Every structure is written in C-alpha cells, then in structure tokens.
Amino acid sequence: MSLYQGNDQLGIATAQRTVRIERRLPGPVERVWEYLTNSEKRGKWLAKGPMADHAGGPVELTFRHSELSTAATPEKYKKYEGHQNPGRIIRCEPPTYLSFTWEEGNGEPSEVSFELQAAGDDTLLILTHSRLADHGAMVSVASGWHTHLSVLINVLNGAETADFWSKLEQLEAEYDKVLPA
C-alpha cells in the first residue's frame, strides 16, 4: 500500500507514455492560474521564466530547486540547478487550460497540460504529461511533478517546504514500481 493518499496520492498512467496527477488546491481558479503563468509566482514552486499567453509563443523555464526547500540539494541533483527548459505554448485559455511542449533532450518534446476547475472555494488541478519517451521519463516527470505540486500546495497555504529532495527520492522509487514498464 502506498504512503501517498488523499491530496498527495500518486499519479497514474492514463495511456501509453502519459501520466496524470490531480490535486485540490486552496483558492479560486484565477489565483492558481497566476501561479502557473506568472514567472515570479511560478518560481516559488516550479521554475521562473517567460511564458507567452498565446499558442505558438515561447516558454522558458529556469529551475532553481535550491530556492524551493530548506534542505540542501543532494550531489546527484546539483546538475539540475539552473537547468533551462524551452518550449512552445500549444494552448492557452485563461484561466482554465494551459498546455506547452516540454523538451526531453532526447528527440521529440513531450507535452504538459494543466486543466483548472472550480471546486467550491478550491481549485481542482489536473496535470497531464504525455508523449513521454519511456518508463524512465515517466518515473522522472511523475515524481518531479508530484514533488513540485506539493511545494505549490505549501506555497498556496503559506507554509514552508522542509525537504523537497527526500520526498523526490521516495517518489522516484514508488513511481518506478507502479508505472508500467
């Protein structure tokens, strides 16, 4: 049985090379949209960088994981500090739908989409990452998104993230077991 339940449950494979994670986020859709599209706010939980507001426009995410957690970055992850991930907006329908390409570095880019739905005073976020290269890519992005979404929940609740890295490592092992090979 997984340790991850409720608003921290594991994502699932919904199709070949596709992972989906759902989270209930505090606050209205418009607030969550700002944390997806505004560079400064997005930098508090994922990565800063410019993002166009129209299909075909550029996205450039610059990851500063050391700013997301009070824990020190383990040696094996230091190579990702400052990593830049370019992409293109596929669809942008404020404030409920955003999708863009995600460079995998080994061929065709994958695609990440965010769907936002009002859920009372909260927002249901459905994140789908598709066209992933293989099992290893699925494990990497599922554990990465899962951990980053935990940071987003903390940010939206005004809480600090104590240890991004130990959670990421635990999730990598868990997703490796549950996602299809």
Query: What is the CATH homology-level superfamily?
Result: START domain
Largest sheet: 7 strands, antiparallel
State the helicity in percent bands: 25-40%
The average pLDDT value, as a whole number, equals 93
- Number of H/I helices: 4
Distance between the termini: 19 Å
Describe the 3D structure.
The protein contains 4 helices and 7 strands; from the N terminus they run ββααβββββαα. It has helices at 29-37, 39-42, 135-156, 164-178, and strands spanning 12-15, 18-26, 58-62, 84-93, 97-102, 110-119, 122-130. It is globular. A hairpin with a 2-residue loop joins β1 (12-15) and β2 (18-26). 28% of the residues lie in helices and 29% in strands. It has one domain: Alpha-D-Glucose-1,6-Bisphosphate, Chain A, domain 4, CATH 3.30.530.20. A 7-stranded antiparallel β-sheet has the order 1-2-7-6-5-4-3, covered by helices on one side. The longest helix has 22 residues, at 135-156. The protein is α+β, with helices and mostly antiparallel strands and 181 residues long.
